[in-house]
Amino acid sequence: EDKVVQSPLSLVVHEGDTVTLNCSYEVTNFRSLLWYKQEKKAPTFLFMLTSSGIEKKSGRLSSILDKKELFSILNITATQTGDSAVYLCAVPAAGNKLTFGGGTRVLVKP
Amino acid sequence: DGGITQSPKYLFRKEGQNVTLSCEQNLNHDAMYWYRQDPGQGLRLIYYSQIVNDFQKGDIAEGYSVSREKKESFPLTVTSAQKNPTAFYLCASSLGTGNIQEQYFGPGTRLTVT
């Protein structure tokens, strides 16, 4: 059975801090790992990672995958209050159905 | 404007009643999905459909039913057999399932059953 575990469960930081979120996985036939940001309702897509060691970057967010150790990291630098959200990690199984981790709730205080 | 719509946003039902949640997309996506999210938890897959007139059970299909008569529409019925139906329900779609594709999510329906 595919498994995705995220840590920490939640964290509170102040604006300007850097945040590192972890996602570890155990899946058969790994193809990719996806990160989503969920503020109030619909998760919005952030990154899709398929290759080890290649950093994907979008503004202050970046992510990297380690296929040997079976984990991914999502970094947020110079955090802002608008970064407050639940960050979800997911891995596709057969049929592109996603197995999600439990999410990490990030609260950025002014 | 392309996207996924779900209605209604909030739904209240009495125990024992079936209820149908709507999901429509105009992205011309082949695949559609239903997820359930409980407070403080990730998403769990209920049903998914890769093509019209075909659908498969996800991880927690018991007490739910779906249909896929049109490409744009994938309604979910929460039946009275579902023991804990109160949750946030999210619909998603993707271009297809043959390749790796990110899924696009609708705004969700929050169902409360009392």
Protein topology:
The complex is a heterodimer of chains A (110) and B (114).
Chain A: E1 3-7, E2 10-14, E3 19-26, E4 33-38, E5 44-49, E6 56-58, E7 61-66, E8 71-76, E9 85-92, E10 98-100, E11 104-109
Parallel strand pairs in A: 2-11
Antiparallel strand pairs in A: 1-3, 3-8, 4-5, 4-9, 6-7, 7-8, 9-10, 9-11
Chain B: E1 4-7, E2 10-13, E3 19-25, E4 31-37, E5 43-51, E6 54-57, E7 64-66, E8 76-78, E9 87-94, E10 104-105, E11 109-113
Parallel strand pairs in B: 2-11
Antiparallel strand pairs in B: 1-3, 3-8, 4-5, 4-9, 5-6, 7-8, 9-10, 9-11
Summarize the structure.
Chain A is mainly beta and 110 residues long. Chain A contains no helices and 11 strands. In chain A, the strands form 2 sheets. In chain A, strands 2, 4, 5, 9, 10 and 11 form a 6-stranded mixed beta sheet that branches. In chain A, strands 1-3-8-7-6 form a 5-stranded antiparallel beta sheet, with no helix packed on it.
